[in-house]
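Let us work through a complete example step by step.
Step 1: write down the sequence.
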Amino acid sequence: MINKQKNQTIQGLLSWFLALFNPLILVGYGFITVLTPRLGAFDSAGTKFLALAILNLVAFFFLMLRKEQRPPNKIFSAFFGNRIGFLYGLFLAVSLLSFLKALNPAESLITFTKLFTVFTAALIIAAILRDNKKQATPLAIGMSLLLLADAANVFNQLWQMAEKHPNIADLFSTLQSEIKHGYSNKNILSSALFVKLPFALWLWTFKKGLVKILGLVATFAGIMALIPLSSRAFYLGLALLTLAYLLFLLLRIFIDRNRLKMAMVSVIIVALIPLFIYLGWLGLSHYIPSIKTFNLKDDITARLSTIKSDEAAGIRTVSWRRSFKLIREEPLLGVGAGNWKINVLKFENQTAPDYTYYYYNHNDFIQTTAETGLVGGLLFLSLFVLVGWAFLVSLFKGAASGTSYEYLFLPAFGMLCYSVDAFFNFPFDRPEIQSLFAIFLGSGIAFSSMRAPVKKLREIWEKVLKEIQFPTDAVVFNPWFKRIIAYLLPGMFILLILGSIYLLYENFRSLRLQAVAKYEVEKGELTVPSYVFMSGFPSIPSISVEGVPIMILKTRYLFNEGDYARAIRVLKAENPSPWESRRELFLSFAYEMTGNSDSSICYSIQVFNLKPFYMANLDRLCKMLEEREQFKKEDSILMEFNRISGNASQPYIDMQREVHRKATIQKVEQFYYPAMNQFKLKNYREAAANFSKIIETEPELLEAWEKRAWCYFYLNEPKLCVADIDHLAGSGVKNGELEDLRKKVTR
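Step 2: predict the structure and record it as tokens.
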């Protein structure tokens, strides 16, 4: 009897746990990337992607134990049986295929691992929501509460900073540079606030009671928190979101007459949004008096007006144009997943004066197309289009569409908000936003009824098997074969998740060492022994978060210990970023320190070819060539620099003229130095003869014409003297002494 009660208690607890499992997992996907700390890594994104992959493993394992997911391969058949899921799978396959074009396969592998991690999250979320649509409610409540917490923290930090910065301009400048609240920086916080708004909007639009009020309050708080963060992209995004929501409400009035009253109320509230924002701004001014001196309308207008004129915006459009060049070069497969930041340097470094780069294109649609080709770009774009289309179909057709627009509202507006962020930023590499992307896309797959052409593909496959006389009945339709496949696919998928965890852990290990190196470089003192980095860095990634080849980080410490021979071996072992040029720069330094000046000059020239406007290298190169009297080579380099710079730097124009003179003298030095010596000794006839030989060989050396004119003067040859002076005047030489000489001769 006691054992029976224990069993019932255990079963009851297990049932209770399983009932809570799904909503906890869903909310966990929204929270885990926000709550995961940096853990000493250079960039918290690496740690958060790792945490997301671990959550995938736990969630997938428990899903496989649920009766609702039997047979175990049901999760895949349902996901890929949906048109959106099917295209998402194709996008993943195309991204994998782009490895064939990757200059740096290690970067492609890390990037694909992140793609796969987000894909897995979307698959799990779709499986949970497909079994029970009502699980979307606790998810939306959790995300709305997180939105409220983020907004409250913005207000709190604004209030705290107001005490230290009574001047409103200083206050907002400090707020935009320092605030982040659990996110890597202010931009990610702004993105997270904006992209979470659809959860609150969904609660307000479709739920009742306190939950509905929560949605309204969270929406208002999120909008109010976005305003002082001064993000132009999300000012435009708020306008687009408001317009889309208002359009939805108007359509709802005409389509769903039963909800006419509620729709009218919503329209009125949306129309009053500017008034609510103004009242909220007045409320903030009660706690922060300096806000009263701040004109909200003028600030937003002024901020938006800088979109075309702002330097950062200009750089962004230049980056987009470079990406289009990459697309034209590799339209089919792209340059390889994760390889945009490598390939774009062949254009960017032709104008960049230093090693500060754009590591992302600031437009995920363009960057995805550049990395995976036109097919990959179209597949990525189709995910947004299909989710929106499914929502519109359900809105206009109602029950006849097989789905409810109530549930599709969340993924449709979520993908709309995400697309704004993706158009102006790079949410692909921001795990806080990627977890939201997985939620929106997973819910779109779960709630839509668009079927993929799986049946047709199956018929084609069976026809192929029949043509090759494959024993289909004995193998494919065998119950044992089906059972093996049912368990084999989930088993292989778990292995892939484990593989992704391993790769992301290796990336995390690298990020920890990158953080140490960055700290010491900025401090200006390298104290950690080189062996820590030589043996500590894993084989992947080969490029740091900032786009610096890992070998450069290692080489800095070898340089610090004077081990230049080993540094050369490390640098010559690989070239993970062919257009980055720091490898060649460090090789030049290393060879210089080992006394091999020829190799040092050779690699410095390579740096100039890759990065001509890096002036520190140009000056150093010219100095080395000058010291070795390689004037011809120095002349050609300076001539090329002045050509590509449009003769914009007068000091380098003057330097090139002087070097060109030295290079010319070097060609005729067998005549030049004797002529100059004879001129000093007043042997003018012999000097004139040698200057004539120089002029025959190098007529551009105007110095020879001038000296010969003086020789003719002293030799009493006025006509020849005047002829040389006239030639110099015709060549643009302006010399007061020569003009006086001409007057003397022609008297």
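Step 3: interpret the result. The domain at 506-628 is CATH 1.25.40.10 (Serine Threonine Protein Phosphatase 5, Tetratricopeptide repeat).
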